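Please, structure for the following, as tokens.
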Amino acid sequence: MPFSAALLQKMLATARTRLQDAQRTDNSPETRFDCAYTAIRAVADAALHAQGWRTSTSKPGHHQTTIGCFVHTLGVSPATVRVLDALRKQRNLSDYDGELVTEQALLECLQQAQALSLLAQQKLAPLLNQNASGA
């Protein structure tokens, strides 16, 4: 998939919006968790896009694959990727089995979403700046 600064900007904007929604304490813990997880996925998709890649959403496991690529796309540690994978599993339990989200899981998901959003802004900003200057 060819790189597009406009698409990268949209993906990062989605992550920011979802993170803002996740921080709204008037939302339920499950909604907040889902929004924070979606922010993580949006960052993961943006980081893949910056490399000219994307996962096939028509195949099972695309969330796991996208999150696993953080090691290569943003230099995230394997230990952090394991935490993110646990959050992915929690999201599946919540979405598909109706399991309630614990406060600890919510706080971890929020913290990871914030950290990844900042990391993406730092690492991907040069791509946006280059395109804006016509380079």
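The CA atoms of residues 41 and 63 lie 7 Å apart. The two ends are 19 Å apart (CA to CA).
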